[in-house]
Amino acid sequence: MTDISVVVPTYNSAAVIGQCLAGLRQQSHPPINIVVCDGGSTDDTVAIANEYGVTVIEAPANRSAQRNAGAMRAVGEYIVFVDADMRLTIKVLENCVADFRGSDAALVIPEKDIGKSYWARVRGFERSFYDGVWWLQAARCYRRLQFLAIGGFDVGLVGPEDWDLDERIRQFGGVHEIAASIEHDEGQIKLSGLIRKKAHYATSFNEFKSRHPGRAALCLSGRQRVLLIIRRPWKLITHPVLTTGLATLGITEFIVARGWMNRWASSVKEQPMDASLNPLFHGKPQ
Fold first, then answer.
1. What is the pairing mode between strands 33-38 and 4-10?
2. With a threshold of 0.85, does the pTM exceed it?
3. pLDDT tens digits, 115-172
4. Which of 38, 40, 140, 157 could staple 161 via S-S, CB 3.0–4.6 A?
5. Distance CA 242, CA 280 (A)
6. Does domain 4-189 have CATH number 3.30.465.10?
């Protein structure tokens, strides 16, 4: 059986980490090890993770640094990176192992946004227009040795680090999508929460543009996203309430991304780090 590891970065994730780890334990192809890399949680995240018998380590509150530190403790041929608020459908890891071809460098796992609030449903509605759009997706499953060799995620980026690695990993081969999906639980999120996420991620957009101008021209273009949405007018017409929310969210995110509303400046603890602090540059991975 081909071995696969899972790395989960956490920060004050007590409300969701249990369901994430339970889903990993129920996979049809069990992971050889699960590494939870915590960024200094002050709630019960670590205690809950320990109850599931996974490997728990500490790293700075930077998802890229956490993921890279976790990768150093992974032992599988492949690594899958998921967030604490995600649940894997039962065959995700099985699909990853079965679908990884010799010419592949990485695999995309499609995501579906779910949640109990109106704005969580709006986010899920928006994502449904992006199915199969390669430039908006980012890989989550990698060959461990290639991931380590390329330096993993860039700790200097917050937000577009997934797209950045998706671009860099292609030097080793292709990237394609599997059938099984991940459910991203937005919970009771409000519009203000979605906008603060956008403001937080926007801090690294200019750096991403300078590195990958072609990909950035697609990923960061409001026009491109509008074109993806209006190509399915029947969907907009049949869901007027969600369409209204989608328009509101899109306009507000456009304004925030351009720095026109300073009130949404992010106060999130996670910040870009100097490249010298990348955990993969210190110590010896297995």
1. parallel
2. yes
3. 999 999 999 999 999 999 999 999 999 999 999 999 999 999 999 999 999 999 999 9
4. 157
5. 43
6. no
